[in-house]
Amino acid sequence: MKITDIRYERLEGVYELSAGHAVARQVGALDIYPEYRQRGSRHPQPTAGSDSVPIREAYVFIDTDEGITGLFGPIYEDQTFQIERHLRPHLIGQDPLAGERLWDILSRQDRHARKGYMMMAISAVDMCLWDIRGKALGLPVYRLLGGPTREVVPAYASALGFAIEPEKVYEQALAFKQEGYTAQKWFFPHGPGDGRAGMERNLMIVRTAREAVGDDVDLMFDAWLGWDVNYAVAMGRAMAPYQPRWLEEPVPPDRIGAYAEIRRLAGIPIAGGEHEYTRWGFKVLLESDGVDVVQADPDWTGGISEMVKICALCSAYDKPVFPHGHSVLPALHLIAAQSPETCPMLEYLIMFNPQKQWFHKVKYMPEGGIVRLPEEPGLGIVLDEERIQARTELRWR
Ligand SMILES: [Mg+2]
Question: What is the C-alpha separation between 277 and 175, in angstroms, rounded?
């Protein structure tokens, strides 16, 4: 089999927002500047009187001479440029089933291919190659990876975007529990720029969520790169009585020494790694003893091929991997083929993962806190033509 072409398409349609969709903002790295702190949510908001928003998503297609096409998305359009400009010359005419060789070549073809958008582009190509392999052999990807290790995969409810007023947190946290989720994650709105009042509002979320769910549900909290060491240590100590399962990404990802310091002083488990790349990035993170929980994202860190290596590394360090939930399918296939000790759960962003699957005919969403495994060969992405109102080929040539 040989790769004959690589194509990119921008799909456009109208996304129907779920009832009560109003997106709360979360703290971020830019919040140290007042003008950025005052910005609203970066997520789509309904306009007055409407419950739908325009949606556009990019997909990559890798064609072969045997009529099998590997498909992956949604991805950022920046990734499609990287694939076209840097990766395409190393892929056309090559055997798509020899994915290990191609990953190695793609990671060596440019000295800047270590991290960031170029590694995200390599990740998207890797997904397409797994999709081709699955379609060629007539098996879902998790079977090619040696799974399933379980019949279904448990998911945790990730509450990014949900309202953070105490009564709403209480109501929603209880609702997640009643739906069957055994774990849930909340996002902090405030950081060091918001003073003691902001810290108190952050703590109110922790307190309220714990009151709502009782002791038998895991609660996780995400600071999304928005804090510094002192703030994270103070928050960690104040959160400790509420027994959080973890505090996530308290500081930007390259501050590895800071992670280790926070972990030593805060008195609660620390999670990180959704913005880390490849086995070599995770090796440094693990050696630094900076995290209790690893959150590599298959869509960004190097694809499913690289995730398998990262999982092996993490299992040798006895650190669980809870893959970050940028999209559902790659993480689902991976988790279904790893020991439940290595990959306990899927992250499901209740408000945003349905949006990422808007153009997919078959959707993977938790029911009762668990997700069924895909049956289609390959990754299982089948585009729903009825939802695609416009399709534009992205041409970088
Ligand atoms: Mg996160």
Answer: 35
